[in-house]
Amino acid sequence: MEEMRRTxxxxxxxxxxxxxxxxxxxATGGIAVPVADGAVLDFAWRYKDLGSVEASxxxxxxxxxxxxxxxxxxxxxRTLTDLRCQGLRVLLRYPF
Length: 96
Known about the structure:
Helices cover 0% and strands 69% of the residues. By secondary structure, it is mainly beta.
């Protein structure tokens, strides 16, 4: 895999490429509650497991937003991260 790039608030971190691994899974659940005049209030929960990301050991660098500083060189160890997230959504539906 090529160099991996992450940008947060304009500052970019570049690390050596790695691998994506694992089985992708998702679970969802929810309930709809009727309220007044045909409106429905939905509550939904979602969980995602997108596997793992591994960045290789090696030279990395941070590039600052607006080039306000010279790039910062880093020597990073191998990094392994699990990609998981969950969220709750509340929605009001009204027919018209």
